[in-house]
């Protein structure tokens, strides 16, 4: 699916980002979320199987199904993970331009009571 792709660990990536001049501001493991995402993608592919086969052929559709099902299993069993890392470049004065803390209140939808 991803020729020449490599699964690097977050420590390696953070070190490389730091060496490139980025200040790491946030790191998050989205492993469980991605397992759920893949479950949805698998269900969607199965629900639209005939359309997918018509679009890309049976062989490619089967590769997609196998890849996504195997990946989902890997995420569920903690064999693979997906880390999101946020890095920023500082300006000349050492400022990141980022808020001190995330403003979850402003970005969250109101909760109905």
Explain what the structure shows:
- By secondary structure, the protein is mainly α.
- The chain is elongated and about 55 Å long.
- The protein has a two-stranded antiparallel ribbon.
- It contains five helices and two strands, in the order αβαααβα.
- The protein has a domain at 10-88.
- α2 (31-47) packs antiparallel against α4 (58-76) and α3 crosses α4 (58-76).
- It has helices at 10-19, 31-47, 49-56, 58-76, 104-107; strands at residues 23-29, 83-88.
- The longest helix is centred in the middle third of the chain and has 19 residues, at 58-76.
Give the tags.
51% helix, mainly alpha, 113 residues, 5 helices, elongated
Number of strands: 2
Largest sheet: 2 strands, antiparallel
Number of distinct helices: 5
Strand-residue fraction? 5-15%
Secondary-structure class: mainly alpha
User: For the terminal residues, how far apart are their CA atoms?
Assistant: 45 Å
N to C succession of SSEs: HEHHHEH
Low-pLDDT runs of 5+ residues are none
Rg from Cα: 19 Å
Helix content: 40-55%
